[in-house]
Every structure is written in structure tokens, then in C-alpha cells.
Amino acid sequence: MSDRLPGTDLAFEIEADSDVRLDSLVAARAELSRTQAATLIANGHVSVSGRREKASYKPVAGERVVVHVPPPAPREIRGESIPLDIVHEDDDLVVVNKPAGMVVHPAPGNWSGTLVNALVGRGGDLSSAGGDERPGLIHRLDKDTSGLLLVAKNDRAHRLLSAALAARRVVRRYAAMIWGHLDADERTVDRPVARDPNDRQRMAVVEGGKVARTTFRRLARFDSGDLLRAHLHTGRTHQIRVHLASIGHPVMGDDTYGGGGGRKLVALPPRRHFLHAAWLRFTHPITGTLLDLRAPLPADLRSAIAAVAHDPSLRDAVDPLAAFAFYDNDPGAS
User: Fold this and answer.
1) Domain boundaries 85-166, CATH class
2) Which of 11, 325, 56, 277 is nearest to 150 (CA)?
3) pLDDT, greater one: 77 or 58
């Protein structure tokens, strides 16, 4: 599968005659929607053996298709006055406790109201290494996943933090509630992840996809499911959700990957899944100080864990995860 960035070319040869339209071929090979592919063809960004063809053209064996995806036009990010829960901040970085429902960075369909809009609205510096629309971002969280997110204020910090993340020196632990029960108290899922070839809005376990590895440890077993601590060894899009769905235990409330049914039984609001980035631990890239940062479960997930555990006291606990030994043991283990 392709992993191109905008502004690069993709070329492929037609190996055998078929009854497939050019726009469908381009969409599949370039990982685009059919509408996007048709637009590229109409604007002259696709050639077939050096010539332009219509979207309906059906290439034949031996023809070479070249696709050019132009870079998006630069777009100015507007700062907005949006409150943020800042867990840690210094001259080089800031760690935000992102609420569920907030998109991390601007993109088509979400040009405002994002975490980046809020960061820009606060004033101050953000690193440029993430690009014009992702200033400062070291990693991301899904829209409906809450919790800790790391942001760099300058390019040096960004470079060092990105290197630490790639070398697995940034420990990220998530709290997840799943339907059903794992067959062991600890399980590591090591399965490649890529775009779902049948639905570009989803990710999936795909042969030939990017290496992805997650370790899950059961902290509590309830009637309807397990409370897990998830440790990311890699950071693919939707990795935890895809890995859990692939072993038959989707995240509670996850409409995309099969866990959305029964959300009322576990007191989850609409469009909310039980996944929270609760623990972040790393060495400060400039000062060398060890940072151990925690984000207790937000109110909606406290209500959910109280419902699943049949223990109303958890709804008002400061940090229910502590009661289930979420923060115990060496965070670099497993």
C-alpha cells in the first residue's frame, strides 16, 4: 500500500487488461477516495503512458499510470480562545490533557475548534517542525480519545522529543475498557496496521502494513468486560482500537471498530469510547529531568467505570485508576 505525502508522484504499470475505470484504479493505488481521484484526473495530475485520459478510461496491460498529488495550499491557522487543561509547561514543551470530542489539528471539515487553534490562541512559540497545520505536535490522539498529548515549543525540543518517541523512550500508557475478557492477564498484539482497503475512514490489520505492537495488561475483570492498561510500543493511527478489535475485544463505545453497541448499559455518552491517555513518562529533552505526568479519568469515564464495576463510589473518586493499580510497576516494562 502507498504511504506517499502530498507533492510526490506515484507510478504503476497495468499488468493485465481489466474492466476497471481509471479513477477507481488511482483511488485504490493512491489511497484516495474515488472523488479525489476523479478530481486529480480532471485537473491533469494523472497521465496514462504520457497522455491525459478521462476518469472513465479503462487502462490496458502495459500502460503506465503516473499520479501527482499536489501539496495542499497553505492555510493560516487562526488562534482561538479555547480553554485547555495544561498538565505541564516550561520553556520547551507543554503537555495538554485533551478532552474527548476535540480534533487535534485543522484538516478538511475541521478548520476551527481544534487543539492547535487553541494552542495558537494562547500565544507564545510552537515548533515549526510539525508543519504549518500541525505546529508543535509530537504525536496525536483520536478525536474521541481523551488524555495527555505532548507539544514542543521550539524546533530543538521537537527534534529531540520525536527521536525519543521513535526510540521508545517516551512511555505512553492508556486506560481502555473492552467488551469481553482477555484469555490471559497480559497479552501483546503484534500485527501490522494500515488503511482498511475496503473503507478509507478506518484502519485495519493488513498484511504488508506498518509494524504495530501493543501490550495489554488486565487490571480488573468485570461482568461485561475488562479494564486494561495499554502500552504502545509503536504509534500507528487507531492502533489500540484496531488491535483490540482484531482479537475480538473492541473498546467499549467504539462505533468504528465494533464496540458501540450497549453503550447505555455502561453509561457512555454518544460518540465516546472508553480510551484515555492517562500516563506519560519521559526525560525532558533539554533539562534531563524525568517527567511523570498523569491525567485522571474524566467525569464521563468515571461514570462508565462505576457502571461497569457496579461501584457508585468510583464516580466521585479523584483518580479511580489508582484503585486498580494502573500506575504500579515500572512503566518501561512489558
Assistant:
1) alpha beta
2) 277
3) 58
Beta-sheet pairing, 275-283 with 146-152:
parallel
pLDDT at 5: 46
The yes or no reply on domain 171-323 and CATH 3.40.50.720 is no
Which grid coordinates are listed for 151?
Answer: 507539544
Which residues in the chain are classed under CATH 3.30.2350.10?
Answer: 85-166, 171-323
* Cell 464496540 -> residue: 259
- Residue 74: its pLDDT value, please? 63
Q: At what angle do helices 22-30 and 34-42 cross, to 10 degrees?
A: 110
DSSP secondary structure code for residue 256 in this structure: T
Whole-angstrom CA distances from 35 to 22, 58, 306 are: 12, 17, 45
The grid coordinates of residue 326 equal 494502573
Residue 158: in which H helix or E strand, if any?
Answer: helix 155-166
Task: Write the pLDDT tens digit of every residue in 147-176.
Answer: 999 999 999 999 999 999 999 999 999 999
| Closest by CA position to 102, among listed 85, 77, 125, 127 | 85
Class of domain 9-68: alpha beta
- Burial label for 39, CB within 10 Å (0-12, 13-18, 19+), is middle
- All three cell numbers of 88, joined, read 505541564
Contacting residues for 329 by C-beta, under 8 A, at least 6 apart:
none
Which residue is listed with cell 483520536? 142
* Residues labelled catalytic: 142
Which ranges in the chain are annotated with CATH 3.10.290.10? Answer: 9-68
CA distances to 94, 282, 302 from 319, in Å:
22, 21, 8
Whole-structure pTM value: 0.79
